[in-house]
Request: fold
Amino acid sequence: MTSDFVYQEPVFNFHAKNTVLRKVIKAVDVNLVVKVVLDTSALFGLEQVPPNWEAYVTEGVLAELEKYNDRRAENLLHTIKVSQATTASLSKVKEAARGTGDSSRLSKTDMEVLALALELKAALATDDYSIQNLASVLGVEYLPMNMKGISKVVRWNYLCTGCGKVFKEPQPDCPVCGSALRTTRRR
Ligand SMILES: [Zn+2]
Reply:
């Protein structure tokens, strides 16, 4: 995470998918950081964690990743924090799941991911419809990763503010001239 990003609560609107996409793009352009909790499905749909995401997963998601033994996911984890929701948040999620009838469709890991997003006031990146449904009920904003174009959208370039050279991978500073790098959208 580069330090020139300013943290802001996520402002995604979960009822309008295109709006979600626009907000994610916009947040990068204006250097705002958004908190995002990722479930396993979202991690697999993501090539790179967008530079303005303060990204979180739970222990349960980690365990699922280990099961799949995915190399790319392993690389993503360098830029993701691991955290766990409190039992109080988890109880709220379980209660809401009983109310909507989603209990049987959601795993322990699903519940924990929802609880963490609720607790951190983060957006939840997930492609699971049951999780999305319960997220709406809980007022947790969610971000589907399987939208048309999103895989294209979440690719970034790193532009040197000194020599203007463009890098596809994040670097602490420009390996050519040592100047600071700026994140730009890959077009
Ligand atoms: Zn440079």
Q: What stands out?
A: The helical segments are 17-29, 40-44, 59-68, 71-76, 87-100, 108-120, 129-138, 150-153. The beta strands are 6-7, 32-38, 53-57, 80-82, 123-125, 142-143, 156-160, 166-167, 181-185.
